[in-house]
Amino acid sequence: MAAQGLSGFYGSVFRRSITVRVLIRTTDGRVLMLRSGNAWELPGGVVKGGEDPRSAARRIARATLDPEFDVGRVLVLDYVQGVQGQADSIGFLFDGGMLSTSVTSFTGAGGEWEAGFIPLADCGAADEGLRGEWGAALEALELGTMVELVNGEPVSAGPVAAPTLRRMMPPLEGFSGILGH
């Protein structure tokens, strides 16, 4: 049963999480991936309260690479519908630009995570959580646009038609408008 009233509305809004990831590439075709545990992932995390997605992406990239690092445009926006009591989430994938480096790997401060520059062709297999987003990110980079996904699948909006003209009031006999035209 759907929640009703303001408590239902606020309950549904505040159950959504917002995450960000940053796609940082090298000039020779590698992508920065982080590993904490077994899985390799793009640098990313949760947007904190009072923080916008771009600021969160910038914070994460700066903590990973350089205190002066900045992020570019949004490449992918993915709305993931929660299932079986899990909350919905919204994920942003930002363009972190290109680096010129010969470094292949490094370890984060305190040894909390390992970082590696992985060939782009191997990244989709390395990051299980981004399988649908890899193709969308590459398409967005190539076309200079943003790709919208729902549950990791592209949204096929089709052609957008102009909205139809709607009258606020039904026509009145003998009256042709406010100014009498």
List the helices and strands and how they pair.
Layout: H1 5-13, E1 17-26, E2 30-35, E3 40-41, E4 44-46, H2 53-64, E5 74-80, E6 89-99, E7 105-107, E8 114-119, H3 120-126, H4 131-143, E9 147-150, E10 153-154
Parallel strand pairs: 1-6, 5-9
Antiparallel strand pairs: 1-4, 2-3, 2-8, 5-6, 7-8, 9-10
So, CATH architecture?
A: Alpha-Beta Complex
Approximate shape = elongated
pLDDT averaged residue by residue: 81
Distance between the termini: 52 Å
Helix content, binned percent: 10-25%
Compute the CA-based radius of gyration. 22 Å
Q: DSSP helix count? A: 4
- The strand line-up of the biggest sheet is 4-1-6-5-9-10
Class by SSE composition:
alpha+beta
Which fold name corresponds to the CATH topology? Nucleoside Triphosphate Pyrophosphohydrolase
Count of strand segments? 10
The major beta sheet can be summarized as: 6 strands, mixed
The domain tally reads 1
Low-confidence stretches: none
Strand content: 25-35%
Give the ordered list of helices and strands: HEEEEHEEEEHHEE
Q: Which CATH class applies here?
A: Alpha Beta
CATH superfamily: Nucleoside Triphosphate Pyrophosphohydrolase
Keywords: Hydrolase
GO molecular function: hydrolase activity
Pfam family, one: NUDIX
InterPro entries: NUDIX_hydrolase-like_dom_sf, NUDIX_hydrolase_dom
